[in-house]
Amino acid sequence: PRARSIMHHLWLMLLPFLGLVSVAPAEKGLEFPRYDGKDRVLDINDRNYRKAMNKYSMLCLLYHEPIPDSKELQKKHQMTEMVLELVAQVLEEKDIGFGMVDAKKDAKVAKKLGLDEVDSVYVFKEDRVIEFDGLLSANTMTEFLLDLLEDPVEVLDNALELKAFNRMDEEIRLVGFFKNQESEHFEAFKEAAEQFQPYIKFFATFEKTVAKQLTLKMNEVDFYEPFMEEPVTIPEKPHSEEELVAFITKHRRPTLRKLRAEDMFETWEDDIEGIHIVAFAEEEDPDGFEFLEILKEVARDNTHLPDLSIVWIDPDDFSLLIPYWEKTFKVDLFRPQIGVVNVTDADSVWMAMDDEEDLPTAQELEDWIEDVLSGKVNTEDDDEEDDDDDDDDDDDDDDDDDEDDDDDDDDDDDDDDDSDEDEDDDDDDDDDDDDE
Ligand SMILES: *[C@@H]1O[C@H](CO)[C@@H](O)[C@H](O)[C@H]1NC(C)=O
Question: In this structure, are strands 348-350 and 337-342 parallel, antiparallel, or unpaired?
Answer without folding.
Answer: antiparallel
